[in-house]
């Protein structure tokens, strides 16, 4: 793949190639922990991928390994050294939990998002892989771990409750209550990883999976994602799904008549067909 840098950032890299966007954590020496700068850069890049009509699949990956010890990581969650009393403190001095906004962008992205996990996926980093549509993990180096209950920073949303829908209640409670390490293979067997991939083939495999998805009907992928989100997302899930129903309704003669009648200041004369 011939990746081209889409935008320069400090804490992440952002590249594009043939319909695929690749957003990657780039703080490998702290296991790709995120600070407020990281999350606002993630938000910016995900929003760009959301808006770009030439992008159909987004990879959330990570640069590495650490130059200190050669260890690979996906993301180790919130940067504990940036944690204040009410959240994570940014350059502006305000305390935020804005990784949750990034989670929502991933969740409501009208395209597939694939987590590409080369190493540690821990705490809020684990929750990010949970919220992505698919997860590919390095056979040799990926380790999944939930430390939220070690550091009193718990994700009571998608990170835990949605995880439980994915791996079952007993396993999800084990993951959070014991905080053990799980290999890519164990995570695969639990149902939270789609494929275990040899480390040196991980990025290429992610790109191949993306290309397979890109060959499908874009509307179908979007509607299927939103349909599968719907039951877990309550009224917001309904809103997102229904927005697409409205868009499809716009394309009918009926909708054109409704708009035209308003603009022409006359009563609408809808086609009198009640198609079952
Ligand atoms: O759950 C949430 C949220 C929920 C709701 C709303 C907002 C949320 C926001 C955030 C989060 C969270 O992410 S809570 C969970 C926060 N993360 C952690 O508790 C994980 C902390 N890290 C570790 O447990 C370990 O580092 C590790 C299992 C990922 C890797 O262990 P390893 O290979 O033994 O490496 P280690 O020596 O511990 O770390 C390497 C370097 O990276 C260390 O720095 P150094 O001594 O070389 O200077 C270490 O301090 C740094 N580092 C690793 N993780 C973090 C970190 N620095 C800051 N924050 C980190 N998360």
TrEMBL record:
It catalyses: 2-succinylbenzoyl-CoA + H(+) = 1,4-dihydroxy-2-naphthoyl-CoA + H2O. It is an enzyme of class 4 (lyase). InterPro entries: ClpP/crotonase-like_dom_sf (IPR029045), DHNA-CoA_synthase_MenB (IPR010198), Enoyl-CoA_hydra/iso (IPR001753), Enoyl-CoA_hydra_C (IPR014748). Substrate binds at residues 31, 76-80, 88, 120-124, 147, 153, 250, 265. Its EC number is 4.1.3.36. One of its GO terms (molecular function) is 1,4-dihydroxy-2-naphthoyl-CoA synthase activity. The record marks 88, 148, 250 as: Important for catalysis. The keyword Hydrolase does not apply. Pathway: Quinol/quinone metabolism; 1,4-dihydroxy-2-naphthoate biosynthesis; 1,4-dihydroxy-2-naphthoate from chorismate: step 6/7; Quinol/quinone metabolism; menaquinone biosynthesis. Gene3D superfamilies: 2-enoyl-CoA Hydratase, Chain A, domain 1 (3.90.226.10), Lyase 2-enoyl-coa Hydratase, Chain A, domain 2 (1.10.12.10). Keywords: Lyase, Menaquinone biosynthesis. CDD domains: crotonase-like. It comes from the Bacteria. Belongs to the enoyl-CoA hydratase/isomerase family. MenB subfamily. HAMAP family: MenB. Converts o-succinylbenzoyl-CoA (OSB-CoA) to 1,4-dihydroxy-2-naphthoyl-CoA (DHNA-CoA). This is 1,4-dihydroxy-2-naphthoyl-CoA synthase. The gene is menB.
């Amino acid at each position: 793949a011939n990746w081209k840098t889409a935008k320069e950032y400090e804490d992440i890299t952002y590249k594009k190639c043939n319909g695929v966007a690749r957003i990657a954590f780039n703080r490998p020496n702290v296991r790709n922990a995120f600070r407020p700068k990281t999350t606002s850069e993630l938000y910016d890049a995900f929003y760009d991928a959301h808006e770009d009509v030439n992008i159909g699949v987004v990879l959330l990956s990570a640069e590495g390994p650490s130059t200190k010890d050669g260890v690979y990581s996906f993301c180790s969650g919130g940067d504990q050294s940036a944690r204040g009393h009410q959240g994570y403190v940014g350059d502006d001095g305000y305390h935020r939990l804005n990784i949750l906004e990034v989670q929502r962008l991933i969740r409501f992205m009208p395209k597939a998002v694939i987590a590409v996990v080369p190493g540690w996926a821990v705490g809020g980093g684990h929750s990010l892989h949970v919220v992505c549509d698919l997860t590919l993990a390095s056979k040799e180096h990926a380790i999944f771990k939930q430390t939220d209950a070690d550091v009193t920073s718990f994700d009571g949303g998608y990170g835990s409750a949605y995880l439980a829908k994915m791996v079952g209640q007993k396993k999800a409670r084990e993951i959070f209550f014991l905080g053990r390490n799980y290999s890519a293979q164990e995570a695969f067997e639990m149902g939270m990883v789609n494929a275990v991939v040899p480390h040196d083939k991980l990025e290429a495999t992610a790109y191949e999976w993306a290309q397979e998805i890109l060959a499908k009907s874009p509307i179908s992928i979007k509607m299927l994602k939103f349909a599968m989100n719907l039951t877990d997302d309550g009224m917001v899930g309904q809103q997102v799904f229904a927005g697409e129903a409205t868009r499809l309704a716009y394309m009918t003669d009926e909708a054109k008549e409704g708009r035209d009648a308003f603009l022409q200041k006359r009563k609408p004369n809808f086609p009198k067909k009640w198609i079952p």
